[in-house]
Amino acid sequence: MNYLFEHLLGMIVCDENGNSKEKYECHSLEDYYKKNEIEKKIRHTFKDLQEPSIEIKKRILETLKHEKNAHAFVEYNRDLTKEAIKNAVTDEFLIIETINAIDDLSRVENMLTKRLRNWFALLNPEYEHVEADNEKLVERIHHKKTEKRKGSMGADLHVSDQEPIIELASEIEKIRHTKIKQEHYLEKVMNRFCPNVTAVAGGVIGARLLVHTRSLQRLAMMPASTVQLLGAEQALFRHLRTGAKSPRHGLILAHPLLVSAPQAMHGKIARALADKISIAAKIDFFKGTFIGDALRKALEEKFS
Amino acid sequence: MKAAPIFEVYEQQKGKRRYLYTKSIAPGYDVYGEKVFKEGSEEYREWDPSKSKLCAAILAGAANVFIRKNDWVLYLGSSTGTTVSHVSDMVGKKGLIFAVDSAPIVTRELVFLSEQRNNIAPILADAHHPESYEHRISQVDVLYQDVSQKDQVDIFLKNIQLFLKKGGYAILAVKARSIDVVKNPKEIYKKVYEQIEQQGLKIVDKRQLEPWQKDHLILFCKY
Description:
The complex is a heterodimer of chains A (304) and B (223). Chain A is of the alpha+beta class and 304 residues long. Chain A is 67% helix and 6% strand.
C-alpha cells in the first residue's frame, strides 16, 4: 500500500511504515502551487495511493525536522501567511473600521462644538444662548451670519481675534461633512455585504450589530431574543441578578420605528423588529434571495 | 547580569525584585516597548512577567521551562509575538518556531517580527484544526500553547499527538476563566490534570501565575 502526503517542502510517497519511496521536492512556493499537476503525475505511477493515517503522518513529519529545511519553512510560511492576511480582508473589516470612524468623528464634533460655544460666547453671548441647534450655530458662525444685538454683553474683539473662532467653525463643518459621506459609504458597503439586514435595520444599526457580534456568522446564529438585547447586556444582567426591570431593547433602540413610537409600544416593536433582523441576518449569511423590503414593509404596516 | 538557572535566560537582582532577560538575536530592536540594554557586545531584552505567562511561570518558581538552544518549537496562540520574541531569543538562530494564530490582524505583527528574526515561521490557521497546517510544519521538540478557548485542553492534546516528538515537552497555559466563568478554578485544574494524564502525558511541573495573571496556571508536561 502506498500513501501520499502533500507537504510544503514536497510531495512524499511512502509505504505503511512511513518510509519514503519517492519525493518530489518543492524548491519554491511556485512548485507548491503546482501541486495538482504533480499529483496527477504521481497518481499515474502509483495507482494505489491513499490518505496517510496519523501514525504515518507523524513518521513523515519527523523526517522533515532537519536543520537544512529551517530556512524553507520560514520563507514559505511567511509568504503563505502574507497572502492569507491579504485575502482575509473582507467587507466585515471595512464596516467595522467605518462605523468606528463615524463614532470617533461624532465624538470629536461634539467636543469641538462645545469649545466653539464657549469661545464664541465671549463675542456674542446672546446668540449663543438662544441657538440650541449645534449644526445651525456652527454654520452661521462659519459664514459670519451672526448679528450682534445692541447693548450686548459680548466683547468687541479685533478681527484678528475673531478669525480663529471662524476657522474652528469651518473645521467642525468639514468634520460633519466627512461624517455624512462616511455614513453614505457605510450604507453602500452594508448593502453589498448584507442587503437584508440593511433594509430592515438600516446601515448604521446593522453595522453596530455586526461590530457587537464581531461577525455576520455569529449574528445569524443568534436567536432573535438575543438580537433584541444586544448592547443592553449590563441592564440584562442587572435584571437577572437583582430582579430590576428587564431591558426592552439594546442597540436597535436607535431604529426610526422605535424612536417615533410611544413608550408603551417599545417592547412590542423591539421584539418584532429583532425577529425580522434575525431572519434577515440568516438570509444574508446563507446567501438567500432579497426579501428585506418585504420584511420592513410588514413591520411598518403593523406599527404605523 | 548573570545566567539564570534556566537555559538561555539571564537574571539580575535589584533590591527585592528579580528581573529576567533574554539575549537578543536581533540587536538594535525592541519588540513591544521593553527595555533593551547592552552589556559588552551582547544585547539583552527585559522580560515582562505581566505581559508574558512563561516569564511569570519562571518567576513563580519553575525550575525548568524545557526550551533549549536549537530547539524547534510549535507555538499555538502566538498573538502579536510578545512571548514568541523571547522564545525566539532562547532557541537562537539555529532554532525554529512555528507560530500559529487564527486572527489576521495580530498575525500581521507576527509577520513583521518574523522579518526581523529569521527563526519564526508565522502561520495563519486555527489551532482547532491541526490538519489545516500539518502540511506547513514538521515535528517539534517543544509545544507551547496559550489560547483562550473553551476546549483548550482538547486542542492541546490533538496537537501533541500529531506534532510533538516522543520524549518532548509540552507547555500549556490554562486559563480557567475561558473554560468556565463561574466554576472554582481549582476544580477546573483538577479536570485538566485528569484529562492530560489520561493521554499518557506526565505532568512535570505546575505553576500558578499569581500575582501577575489571575486564575492562570502553567503546566509542563512530558510526552
